[in-house]
Amino acid sequence: MDQAPIASALSEALEAASNTRSFAPLVDGIRSALSTLGVQVDRLQLPLWRRLGFRHPTLGMVFAEWDDERGHDATTTWTHAEMEARLAKRRAALPFADIVFKGEPYRLVCDLQAGDEPELDVARGLRARGYRGYLVLGLPVPSGLQQMLAVCSRDPFPPDTGERLDSIRPLLGIVVYAAIRTSQALSVSQVYIGRESGPRVLEGEIQRGSTERLEAGILFCDIRGFTALSERVGPEEVVRIVNEVFAVVGAAAECRGGEILKFIGDAMLLVFPVDQNRNEVARAMVDTARESIAGVAALDSGVQVGFGGHIGEVVQGNIGTPVRLDFTVMGPAVNLASRLEGLCKPLQVAAVFSDAVAVADLGLHAAGPQTVKGVATPVQVFTL
Question: Which domain holds residue 73?
Answer without folding.
Answer: 4-192
